[in-house]
Design goal:
Shape: elongated
Oligomer: single chain
Distance between the termini: 25 Å
Number of helices: 9
Number of strands: 16
Strand order of the largest sheet: 1-2-6-3-7-14
């Protein structure tokens, strides 16, 4: 490949998108890993494939030598999507309408993965090498919080000089220099059953108690401090003619700083039942730590902006992202992390998910120049 073209890049993206890969379908995710592995092998990468655990797919690692030795670049991406198999045959077929290319996972984040691999393939095809060694790490479970891959991501990050994350850009092409933390909590109430008609007064409703807790939890939201708490799911009761015994709810908390996360955790774990006859338990779940922009991240961002100008386009700015990525883990370790280097588009996790075809060549070229110049 001597010249990067929009048609060739879009064709490569389509090949990835047409392998549907919801997180929970390990075999489907591994079919994406098979494709990525073949592409990495073709450019001379040494492959390490870590068998999946806990019902998830494999972790794929490709190590590409650099022109210089030593600590290199960790390139992070994920192979899973939120869209179930069958989405392409139903509400979100692959299609191109003007400058928009649609498909499940095309924006989050198969487009970015393809751009990164095509950038490395472009360097290889010209007989070159990235300046620093590059470790491409593709994980199977990011959309569910990376429970099976976090430890491996962090172990790899500690061995690298910096991390680049090809999650999609935001707000029309902005690069992500910091991310809020994301914490999950599980609430459970246990009441006392009773006949809902004849003996209603003897019951203690787990659902009623949970309703009080939902209001208390969501009241902790503080937009001015970028703290949001959302009760995203709730389930309880067995029959409308029975005072419900159990109720469960799941909470997602978004926090901008480690101090805010500690505060939210303390407040949630301090919750007490309004009805003393109902038991309440609060259990922390998966957590992505926040990371803040550092001088090293600023330098990476400034370098990327300078390269973009040389190529002939402007990065429209930086952003602090509310959504999480595996860059949360690397950034929180203090590894300089530049995120949001993927495609421009919109509609993640919806049936309007798309990328802008016009972004493929300039942003892939930016990745080429980053690999060639970072040191």
């Amino acid at each position: 490949m001597k010249t990067l073209t929009a048609d060739a890049l879009l064709s490569a993206v389509r090949e990835w998108v047409e392998i549907e890969s919801p997180t929970q379908d390990a075999a489907a995710v591994n079919r994406v890993a098979d494709l990525a592995e073949s592409q990495l092998r073709a450019m001379g990468a040494a492959i390490e494939r870590v068998p999946g655990t806990d019902g998830f797919g494999d972790i794929l690692i490709g190590r590409i030598p650099g022109a210089t030795n030593g600590d290199g670049i960790l390139l992070l991406g994920h192979m899973d999507t939120v869209h179930p198999v069958g989405t392409m045959a139903g509400p979100l077929p692959f299609r191109v309408e003007g400058d928009r290319a649609y498909g499940p996972g095309i924006y989050d984040m198969k487009g970015g993965n393809v751009m990164a691999l095509q950038a490395l393939a472009h360097i290889h095809a010209r007989g070159g090498r990235p300046r620093l060694p590059v470790t491409v790490m593709l994980v199977p479970d990011e959309e569910m919080g990376s429970p099976s891959s976090r430890a491996r991501i962090e172990a790899e990050a500690r061995k690298h000089r910096m991390a680049l994350v090809v999650e999609p850009s935001g707000d029309g092409g902005r690069i992500t220099v910091a991310r809020h933390g994301i914490a999950r909590y599980h609430l459970r109430t246990a009441g006392r059953p009773a006949h809902a008609g004849a003996y209603h007064a003897k019951g203690r409703s787990a659902i009623r108690e949970m309703a009080h807790q939902v209001i208390a939890v969501e009241a902790m939201t503080d937009y001015a401090r970028n703290i949001t708490l959302n009760v995203g799911t709730i389930a309880g009761g067995r029959h409308e003619n029975q005072v419900p015994i159990h109720c469960e709810a799941k909470v997602l908390a978004m926090v901008a700083t480690a101090e805010a996360e500690a505060e939210v955790r303390e407040r949630l774990l301090a919750l007490r039942p309004v009805d003393p006859d109902v038991e309440l338990t609060v259990t922390p779940g998966l957590f992505r730590p926040p990371f803040a922009k550092s001088p090293e991240i600023q330098a990476l961002y400034d370098h990327a902006c300078g390269l973009a100008r040389e190529i002939g386009f402007e990065i429209p700015g930086e952003r602090v992202a509310g959504g999480g990525s595996d860059g949360n883990f690397t950034g929180a370790l203090g590894v300089p992390t530049l995120d949001g280097l993927g495609v421009v588009g919109d509609g993640p996790h919806t049936h309007e998910e798309h990328l802008l075809v016009s972004c493929l060549v300039p942003r892939t070229t930016l990745l080429v120049r980053l690999f060639e110049t970072l040191e």
